[in-house]
Amino acid sequence: MVVSSGFALSKRSLANLEGVHPDLVRVVKRAIEITRVDFGVSEGLRTLERQKQLKEEGKSTTLKSRHLKQADGYGHAVDLYALDKSGKATWKHEDFRPVIQALMTAAIELDVQIQAGALWRTFLDSPHIQLNPEYYA
Ligand SMILES: [Zn+2]
Q1: What does the pLDDT read at residue 85?
Q2: How far is the CA of 50 from the centre of ligand 1 (A)?
Q3: CA of 35 to the centre of ligand 1 (A)
Q4: Which residue segment(s) compose the domain that 77 sits in?
């Protein structure tokens, strides 16, 4: 598939992909090439201290987040934001749909198994994308 969105990941987004599993990085890098809506990476690998803080604040439900370094030495999750037409970051669920669509398309193209928090019913987490734990221990 030869499509060019004209978008590119910012330096900060690329820096936030450091320490993230290479398969997930490939998906994000492909997604930015095909997305209809620009997006960025707000967070990838997370420390346990930060995870504890997020749980206390009710922003996460677990201390076993896939953002933490996993057994293979990589973080298995990223949080994204969409950019509206004026270049402002947005976390609104409806703004995320085209971004999630690009991520899913990229994952299918690259044969990487991912899960989107935008599809979770118990704890809707629109910005969150992770490798499927069934395939990535
Ligand atoms: Zn997340």
Answers
A1: 86
A2: 12
A3: 20
A4: 11-118
